[in-house]
């Protein structure tokens, strides 16, 4: 199937285009508006979030449009004037926001979009779907990185989510500090380091009615080592872990790269395997554990002799928070602040920016949200959080591999800046408070 270079227009909800049609008809489509992406609250128990998806959104924004097939479908319910408008659609507005990898909190103005109402409204679903997914994954991944306390994590959740979501999830987890992914498309698309060796199926392949489990396992390990070298990782829990470790060292020798344990009482097994490896002379062989891990399980393994972790379902599903909770709301019309007053769904009016204040030690103290272009006077260490992303429809920030590397650094430094209690996994209040300066 061939697609136009300008695609993605149908990644939207119908009501955005019916609102557009009504606005074009009554003459309000061209009014200058400001929309804001923010979360009213963090997912239950979370103390911070990690912004992710910015680079993917900017890429989608530059190619967002409607081809002939799209317009043919839309003409079934839209009037000719609206279809004509969409035929020539190109976003020409401005976007400011938090750089990818920044931490955010409830009420943080993560993204500000300023353009005509027509341009802003058709981006709603595209923008929310990217940021809600990627940020949920990155936020969960950052908690796992903190729990791992410097030990590498591998993202391996592709089989637990939609095939395209898996690629975005791998990027988001890497952005938050994971060492790599099992997903080859994420490697091709985003340069995420790719890792992986074998599954239980390869060991079982060498079994047979006349082959003992241990003999079949040893044959499988020898075949893997012959193909991938002694630096490979051998999966030792298909049958009996103790026998598996013995077979692994027999097949690869004392220079075996790693063994992986995917089931059982991981902490107990890790201690037993470490002792056995050392006794067999494989003192440098690493221990990798996997099997339904989340940040709490990783933290519980901190005292075990585990060298790295493989994480699947929990990271690609946001570890209990599959969406970040972002909303996208109109906050300004022709320079005048507007806001919702619906019960439990209020929004603060006016386009906003943010700055953060720090102790001399670098610990984050407060986030100050203020009217755009009107920062308050602040004494002591501080920095602006909001940065330009798009001007006149053109991206004005770095994208691609360099941006991903910078985002990884940003997450790491952001986590270091949190007060110590902000890194707790237990339920609690946000790591820092937000002070809102009214636009009035």
Automatic annotation (TrEMBL):
Keywords: Glycosyltransferase, Ligase, Phosphoprotein, Pyridine nucleotide biosynthesis, Transferase. It comes from the Bacteria. Its EC number is 6.3.4.21. GO terms for molecular function: glycosyltransferase activity; nicotinate phosphoribosyltransferase activity. Pathway: Cofactor biosynthesis; NAD(+) biosynthesis; nicotinate D-ribonucleotide from nicotinate: step 1/1. It is an enzyme of class 6 (ligase). Residues 10-132 form the Nicotinate phosphoribosyltransferase N-terminal domain. GO terms for biological process: NAD+ biosynthetic process via the salvage pathway. Residues 154-321 form the Nicotinate/nicotinamide phosphoribosyltransferase domain. GO terms for cellular component: cytosol. It catalyses: 5-phospho-alpha-D-ribose 1-diphosphate + nicotinate + ATP + H2O = nicotinate beta-D-ribonucleotide + ADP + phosphate + diphosphate. The keyword Methyltransferase does not apply. It holds the Pfam family NAPRTase_N. Transiently phosphorylated on a His residue during the reaction cycle. Phosphorylation strongly increases the affinity for substrates and increases the rate of nicotinate D-ribonucleotide production. Dephosphorylation regenerates the low-affinity form of the enzyme, leading to product release. NCBIfam families: NAPRTase_put, PRK09243.1-5. Catalyzes the first step in the biosynthesis of NAD from nicotinic acid, the ATP-dependent synthesis of beta-nicotinate D-ribonucleotide from nicotinate and 5-phospho-D-ribose 1-phosphate. Belongs to the NAPRTase family. PANTHER family: NICOTINATE PHOSPHORIBOSYLTRANSFERASE, NICOTINATE PHOSPHORIBOSYLTRANSFERASE PNCB1. This is Nicotinate phosphoribosyltransferase. It comes from Mycolicibacter sinensis (strain JDM601). The lineage of its organism: Bacteria, Bacillati, Actinomycetota, Actinomycetes, Mycobacteriales.
């Amino acid at each position: 199937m061939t697609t136009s270079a300008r695609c993605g227009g149908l990644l939207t909800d119908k009501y955005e285009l019916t609102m557009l049609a009504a606005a074009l008809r009554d003459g309000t489509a061209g009014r200058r508006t400001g929309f804001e992406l923010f979360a009213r609250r963090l997912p239950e128990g979370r103390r911070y979030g990690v912004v992710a998806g910015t680079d993917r959104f900017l890429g989608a924004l530059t190619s967002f449009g409607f081809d002939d097939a799209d317009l043919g479908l839309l003409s079934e319910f839209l009037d000719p004037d609206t279809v004509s408008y969409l035929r020539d659609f190109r976003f020409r507005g401005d976007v400011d926001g938090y750089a990818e990898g920044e931490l955010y909190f409830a009420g943080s103005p993560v993204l500000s979009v300023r353009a005509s109402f027509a341009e802003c409204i058709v981006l709603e679903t595209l923008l929310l779907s990217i940021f809600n997914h990627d940020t949920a994954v990155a936020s969960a991944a950052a908690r796992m990185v903190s729990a791992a306390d410097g030990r590498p994590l591998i993202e391996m959740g592709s089989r637990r989510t939609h095939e395209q979501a898996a690629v975005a999830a791998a990027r988001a987890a890497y952005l938050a500090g994971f060492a790599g992914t099992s997903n080859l498309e994420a490697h091709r698309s985003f340069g995420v380091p790719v890792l992986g060796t074998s599954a239980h199926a390869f060991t079982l392949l060498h079994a047979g009615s006349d082959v003992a489990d241990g003999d079949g396992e040893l044959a499988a390990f020898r075949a893997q080592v012959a193909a991938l070298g002694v630096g490979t990782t051998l999966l030792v829990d298909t049958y009996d872990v103790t026998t598996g470790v013995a077979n692994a060292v027999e097949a690869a020798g004392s220079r075996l790269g790693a063994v992986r344990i995917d089931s059982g009482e991981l902490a107990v097994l890790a201690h037993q395997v470490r002792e056995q490896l050392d006794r067999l002379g494989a003192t440098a062989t690493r221990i990798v554990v996997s099997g339904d891990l989340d940040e709490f399980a990783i933290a519980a393994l901190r005292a075990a002799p585990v060298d790295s972790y493989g994480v699947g379902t929990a990271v690609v599903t946001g570890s209990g928070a599959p969406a970040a909770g972002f909303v996208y709301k109109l906050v300004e019309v022709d320079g005048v602040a507007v806001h919702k007053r619906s019960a439990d769904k209020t929004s603060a009016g006016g386009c906003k920016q943010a700055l953060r204040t720090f102790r001399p030690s670098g610990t984050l103290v407060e986030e100050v949200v203020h009217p755009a272009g009107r920062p308050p006077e602040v004494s002591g260490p501080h920095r602006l959080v909001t940065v330009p992303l798009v001007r006149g429809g053109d991206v004005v920030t770095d994208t691609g591999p360099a941006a991903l590397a910078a985002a990884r650094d940003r997450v790491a430094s952001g986590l270091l800046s949190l007060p110590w209690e902000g890194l707790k996994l237990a339920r609690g209040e946000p790591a820092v408070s937000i002070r809102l300066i009214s636009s009035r």
